[in-house]
Automatic annotation (TrEMBL), chain A:
Compartmental location: Mitochondrion inner membrane
Gene: ND2
Family assignment from sequence similarity: Belongs to the complex I subunit 2 family.
Phylogenetic lineage: Eukaryota, Metazoa, Chordata, Craniata, Vertebrata
Residue intervals passing through the bilayer: 60-80, 92-115, 152-171, 178-196, 202-219, 239-257, 277-294, 326-346
Protein name: NADH-ubiquinone oxidoreductase chain 2
TrEMBL record, chain B:
Protein name: NADH-ubiquinone oxidoreductase chain 6
Taxonomic path: Eukaryota, Metazoa, Chordata, Craniata, Vertebrata
Spans traversing the lipid bilayer: 51-75, 87-110, 130-159
An annotated Gene Ontology molecular function: NADH dehydrogenase (ubiquinone) activity
Signal peptide: 1-20
Pfam families on file: Oxidored_q3 (PF00499)
Species assigned in the record: Cyprinus carpio 'wananensis' (glass red common carp)
């Protein structure tokens, strides 16, 4: 892409999120969300093949619908209560509509249907931006308004997201769709606890961004998009093979890896709030997701799939891709669990 | 006056139904013209005459004209107006939905909302909408700068998306 256009788009991505973070007025927050949607559209369609263009169209339609609903909710609130401030979303119609709109924006079940197809049509780096950066601005709004939203809605969104994320990912062989369902499940975990302890939502969001960045960057480094090709990447980089297995298990939430931290703290908070059934349900749905993460580990690391003898050990030349982000994110995705008290203190 | 407002609002909803029922874009633009026109009438009825004139000029006279020319370039051999079977189905379903919602919400919800733009009605020179524009340029200057950036961004986005003419279009391969 033209470097000037690329610079404009990337800086607008930053501008949109910053605008939503910094705003206390609904119109400015909506503008930030729309800037994000606009700026990522050409990045998604840059390869111009029909699947990418279709993914771009679907993404644009869903995000525009969600943004229109946000505008509608905020104008309804302004009409009924006269308040344009984000923290004062006191009208129940407006707050429920707003939560539905944001659920559509971040891909919470039952508004998740666009996510797998959209992620499947993108290349891995754009999919990474979609899964991580585009979630920050809506979560800033959700955290600010969570106190006024109906608790039943939040709980239903959370539980259904983890269920859908688990069950939907079970039958997939395409890695981007698996990561899409993983994203849906993690969003469910973040939403379930937001009414009780928003700092745990922040921790869950932060660790999710780290882990999914590690996963996407690994796939980009070994240029795989399906389980079949994942099974033969063990020979390209043995270190990557071992760390990817651990990153996937971290996404699944196993101790002593980083992914255990949010799940553990969230389950503890739910238990403290006297919601043992919800906590048990969340833990069981995490088990469903763990199954397909384990399948990926098995395919990549724990077995050697049938292969031609003269293709098992390719030349391991130095990679031309930048490996520093991958190294950073992988280290963080594996080793941050002992930092849990510090992280809790930083986000409270 | 109330009946006139009622008529304008009915025409607005009918115009929106005409757009949403998915005819050929050329006819949908006609629906948009009707909807925007009566929307301007509603604005005038509430005292926002400047805003209504600006809306007419810029939206109808600028953006919709450009859209009509572009839609005319993409003309179809068999255009579907609101009489064709598929579009008529949509029109009837949407009108049914409108009737349903009107039946549920009939009376009582709008009485608190039909106020004028500002409290002084005819006794001031600077009306609410004109002074609102002035405030937008003074206190809201930062937002206008961001709007200008967004316009530039939109231009670059559209140019980047449509680069290569028919290569990137959504087509059945």
């Amino acid at each position: 892409m033209n470097p000037y256009v690329l610079a404009t788009l990337l800086s607008s991505l930053g501008l949109g999120t910053t605008l939503t973070f910094a705003s206390s007025h609904w119109l400015l927050a909506w503008m930030g969300l729309e800037i994000n949607t606009l700026a990522i559209t050409p990045l998604m369609a840059q390869h111009h093949h029909p699947r990418a263009v279709e993914a771009t169209t679907k993404y644009f339609l869903t995000q525009a619908t969600a943004a229109a609903m946000i505008l509608f909710a905020s104008t309804t609130n302004a009409w009924m209560t006269g308040e344009w401030s984000i923290n004062d979303l006191s009208n129940p119609i407006a707050s429920t509509m707003f939560m539905a709109a944001l659920a559509l924006k971040i891909g919470l079940a039952p508004m998740h249907f666009w996510m797998p197809e959209v992620l499947q049509g993108l290349d891995l780096l754009t999919g990474l931006i979609l899964s991580t950066w585009q979630k920050l601005a809506p979560f800033a709004l959700i955290i600010q308004t969570a106190q006024t939203i109906d608790p039943l809605l939040l709980t239903l969104l959370g539980i259904s997201s983890t269920l859908v994320g688990g069950w939907g990912g079970l039958n997939q062989t395409q890695l981007r769709k698996i990561l899409a369902y993983s994203s849906i499940a993690h969003m469910g975990w973040m939403i379930i606890v937001i009414q009780y302890a928003p700092q745990l939502t922040l921790i869950a969001l932060g660790t999710y961004i780290i882990m999914t960045s590690a996963a996407f960057l690994t796939l980009k480094m070994s240029l795989t998009t399906k389980i079949n090709t994942l099974a033969t990447t063990w020979s390209k980089s043995p270190i990557l093979t071992s760390t990817t297995a651990l990153v996937l298990l971290s996404l699944g939430g196993l101790p002593p890896l980083t992914g255990f931290m949010p799940k553990w703290l969230i389950l503890q908070e739910l238990t403290k709030q006297d919601l043992p059934i919800i906590a048990t349900a969340m833990a069981l749905t995490a088990l469903i997701s763990l199954y397909f993460y384990l399948r990926l580990c098995y395919a990549m690391t724990l077995t050697i799939s049938p292969n031609m003898i003269n293709s098992t050990t390719p030349w391991r030349t130095q990679t031309t891709q930048t490996s520093l982000p991958l190294a950073l994110f992988t280290t963080a995705a594996l080793g941050l669990l002992p930092m849990a008290p510090a992280i809790l203190m930083l986000t409270t | 006056m109330t009946y006139f407002m009622f008529l304008l609002l009915m025409a607005l909803v009918v115009g929106l139904v005409a757009v949403a029922s998915n005819p050929t874009p050329y006819f949908a633009a006609l629906g948009l013209v009707v909807a925007a026109g009566v929307g301007c009438g509603v604005l005038v009825g509430h005292g926002g005459s400047f805003l209504s004139l600006v809306l007419f000029l810029i939206y109808l006279g600028g953006m919709l004209v450009v859209f009509a020319y572009s839609a005319a370039l993409a003309a179809e051999p068999f255009p579907e107006a609101w009489g064709s079977r598929s579009v008529l189905g949509y029109v009837l379903v949407y009108l049914l939905g409108v009737g349903l919602v009107a039946g549920i919400f009939w009376g009582g919800w709008y009485e608190g909302s039909w106020v004028v733009v500002d409290g002084l009605k005819e006794f001031s020179v600077l009306r609410g909408d004109i002074s609102g524009v002035a405030v937008m340029y003074s206190s809201g200057g930062g937002m206008l700068v961001i709007c200008a950036w967004v316009l530039l961004l939109t231009l670059l986005v559209v140019l980047e998306l449509t680069r290569g003419l028919s290569r990137g279009a959504l087509r059945a391969v």
